[in-house]
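**User:** I keep going back and forth on a fold encoding question. It is easy to fool oneself when nobody else works the same problem. Could you pick a protein and write out its sequence and tokenised fold? Could you put it straight underneath, so I can go through it closely?

**Assistant:**
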Amino acid sequence: MARPVAGVLAKAAAVVLLLVLCMARRSSSVGINWGTQLSHPLPTSKAVRLLKDNGFDKVKLFDAEDGILGALKGSGIQVMVGIPNDMLADLAGSAKAAEQWVKANVSGHVNDGVDIRFVAVGNEPFLKTFNGTYLNTTLPAMQSVQAALAKAGLGGKVKVTVALNADVYQSSSGLPSDGDFRDDIRGLMLDIVRFLASSGAPFVANVYPFISLYLDPHFPLDYAFFQGSSTPVVDGGVMYENTFDANHDTLVAALRRNGFPDVPVVIGEVGWPTDGDEHANPEYAQRFNQGLMDHIASGKGTPLRPGIPVDAYLFSLVDEDQKSIQPGNFERHWGVFYYDGQPKYPLSLRGDGGAGTLVPAKGVE
């Protein structure tokens, strides 16, 4: 009798393992940013079809545009809705303004079948170039919007966060394990992280290895990608062979250092431009983004969060020819697709090393 029982147990264990692997695979989903600062936008219905045809199951928006949200109705695509920085003061100072915003931009769409999961209150509001403009309004606006969501009965479904540039954390030694929040905003950042932890919302960080390469002529080129580096960073017993993992884990170390080891991390923007700089070209963009897709699909996580798949939104869906060209011309060339929905280069979201390819938009004149 022992043999059959052992066989049954072995089969059961195999089934459990398969289910776990499938769940891990599903958790390795890929999102994309859908910006609208362009002169020739794709029709919203065709853009949503493009997302679905290519397997993007999450989308991040920079504003709550009725046309886009309406097109996402019933799509099954999870949505992160953004609130522009110029609205933060009004939302911070008025509970009624927050309630009206939620009613107009979240409640109705959720009831219509739009799968809104997050509201990002502000976009990189603590950039030093803003000279502190949003330091006193970001967190109060987040609190106000969360209270409005709770009042609307959506507090358990829609989480409030803020999309932050990676410059809000740093490392004094350059090693990820020494990560901490920027000195001038450290107290505010801890208040925000405490707010996120209280509701289970993620810390959303925008990470751009390309910018590291762009700003530093001595930055090692291969360290910007995922295929190994001739100059890895050794941090104790950990070796970092790409700047993405090192940046991600600098944030994880900052969270740990300040008593928040379990706050989820979402990479709100990550990608590579195809024009506007000597390092901005389709070859490098394909190399970086395919490496990222392989990394996500592997489910291996990062050294400080092993086994936790990277959660990221590619930047971006299409080029935006009306964006500011600060800090460089490459700002208008981050799209994975051209204006007409044709892919710029082969890219497999499944993480098979590029064996697959993106599907073009259908019916675009």
